[in-house]
Amino acid sequence: MNFPKATVHEIHDKLEGTPLGSLFDLLSDFSIHYLWEKRWFFIAMVVGAVMILAPIPEGLTKDGMIVLAMSVMATIMFITAPIPLPGVALLIVLGQIFLLGIDSSTVAKTLWNDSVLFILGSLMLAVAVVKQKLDRRIAWLIVRMTGTKTSRVCFGISAVSGLLASFIGEHTVAAMMLPVGITLVTLTSDDPRKVRNLAAVLLFSIAYGASVAGIGTPSGGARNAIMIGYWREFFYDPSNPETAKYIIDYVRWMTFAYPMFLIQLPFVTLILFLTFKPEYSDLSRAVVKLRQQVESEGPMKRADWVSVSLFFLVLLGWIFVSDDVGMGTIALLGATTFLVAGLVKWEDINSGVNWGVVLLYGAAISLGIEMKDTGAAKWVAESFLSMLAPLGASEGFGLWAAVSVLTTAVTNTMSNGAAVAVLGPVVLNMADVAGESPVIIGFITAVSSAFAYLTVVGTPACTIVYASGYLKTTDFLAVGWKMALTSTVIMLLAAWLYWPLLGV
């Protein structure tokens, strides 16, 4: 039986003015809106399908091609965010099961390791610390140490933000310190137009101070824990004592990275004052009001002191016993202690921890392991090296700079943790193929992932201060490239002159 064919327009004309016509219009509008909103999701799917169905390049296996396609698809969605990022994590898990044919129990095991537990525990600890509401006291402590001169207050804010962020993570510190910066701005003037540049230097002091410090310790950011996990996974062999150098503990990481953070701190204030010229050179007016507020709250309570003490005990655990039980175990133990002591409620942790971030990092690490196991990471590394060879950047300083530039470009378009998770297997295999130290290349990648100064979405610290309403997106570009250039130069000099002294 042959049915008459009708175009969409003919159907619409016949139904116009009827209830079915209204429904037709609604569905049409919804479909167009949905397809446009999710366009990058479908683009990623098409790109992945084309890669999987395309002829397999020489030196790459079928599974390696599938994993590479999954990585490209994940990267597109990391950058464009057509769906919630935890949804991307779930797609990675499903891809391993259905495309690679890996048993679901095996995939589940790769989602949980000490690095992921460390990220989870650190986020829980961060909620517990922030819950104590110490922002005004921190602001008062800063101005008591620095005085009221704007430049000194900004340096004090970046230093305190940095010291805290180096241990509890930049996004946590940014959230904790944002009220400090806003307090000083609003106490200076109620008119945002009169404190535009002052707000910029104060708020960027928080964001950039936290960002440069996030490299300082393994607990400074998820990217650090991810790289530590990759070193252990890819290069450590318990039966070979020589591979023990790839076990990077808390203290050894600090030895490599903390001096760079300290060197960068003065440059944060210098670059901010060269870019923005604050309207007020002295914050005496704001400090007087701040003192009144702090004095009205009274002295620190017993719970405040207990919280500070517990956090330092966790820090000592990371330094002295993490080799035996793992940094993730210490972080979870600390969070549990806060709960048992009644210093934080589970409702606070449940609402304050971004569980999707934990899932995202777990899935990204799992995909990174598959990149390594299928040989995809090695193939990409060899291909990248062959591209760099004509430029004289396939080894040594040139390779270091190329890896840093690549990582900086990627980390400004997605979270720094995701950047390390995606690039880690590639650059570590690249180091192996090029005969370079995987430790140096790994550190360059992890450290460069902190150079997300140019965009609002590059790092949570930038997103948080932007949410204050005092900053423009163009402000990040105006000052960000100066910060990125300065940080890159300091890091490459450290890799050239300092790190070899540490035995790599």
Layout of strands and helices, then pairs:
Elements: H1 8-15, H2 19-37, H3 39-53, H4 62-80, H5 85-98, H6 104-111, H7 114-130, H8 135-146, H9 150-168, H10 170-188, H11 196-213, H12 222-235, H13 250-275, H14 284-297, H15 302-320, H16 322-325, H17 327-340, H18 346-352, H19 355-373, H20 376-388, H21 396-411, H22 416-434, H23 438-448, H24 460-466, H25 473-498
Description:
There is one protein chain. The protein is mainly alpha-helical. The protein has one domain (114-502). The protein is 75% helix and 0% strand. It has 25 helices and no strands. It has helices at 8-15, 19-37, 39-53, 62-80, 85-98, 104-111, 114-130, 135-146, 150-168, 170-188, 196-213, 222-235, 250-275, 284-297, 302-320, 322-325, 327-340, 346-352, 355-373, 376-388, 396-411, 416-434, 438-448, 460-466, 473-498. Helix 7 (114-130) packs antiparallel against helix 12 (222-235), helix 12 (222-235) runs parallel beside helix 22 and helix 21 (396-411) runs antiparallel to helix 22. The longest helix has 26 residues, at 250-275. The radius of gyration is 25 Å and the shape is globular. Mean pLDDT is 83; it is low at 1-8.
